[in-house]
Every structure is written in structure tokens, then in C-alpha cells.
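Appendix B. Chain record.
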Amino acid sequence: MARNNGENMLWFVAGAAFGAAAALLYAPQSGNRTRRLIVRKLSDGRDALADSSADLVSKSRDLYEKGRRVADDAAELFERGRKFVKE
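C-alpha cells predicted for this chain:
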């Protein structure tokens, strides 16, 4: 589910960036001014994407650590059960 949310965020940001670029191309401004605005908006989009990616990496690390702890606990319980059965 977290992966799906990350993918959705990525597509949303990409769509917003392309939509903004298309809207700016049709805006009644000079070419130079429009190009500067496009560059600024793309930079903002890139920054937002980098922030989302960093958040996704952080959440992935947390999930990995939780999964590792659960696996370690399960292995310990299995070992206890094995020793109990031997006795």
C-alpha cells in the first residue's frame, strides 16, 4: 500500500508539472518571461519530488527495520519451541 501511495504521489507531481508547463506555454506573456516561469515551476516540481522521494525512502527503511525485528522475534520463538520439544 505504501508503494502505491508513493507511485500515486510521483504521478501526481509529474502530471502537475506537465500541466503547469502546458498552461504556461499558452499564457499571454513574453517568451522570455514564460521560459523563466517554466524553469522556476519545474524546479519547484523537482524539489517536491525530491522531498517525496526522501520521505518514501525513510518510510521504506522503517518498514524494513520493523520486518527484520518481527523475523528475529519469530526465529527466537521458533528456537525456544524447538528446545522445549527436545526436553
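Further analysis of this model is presented in Appendix C.
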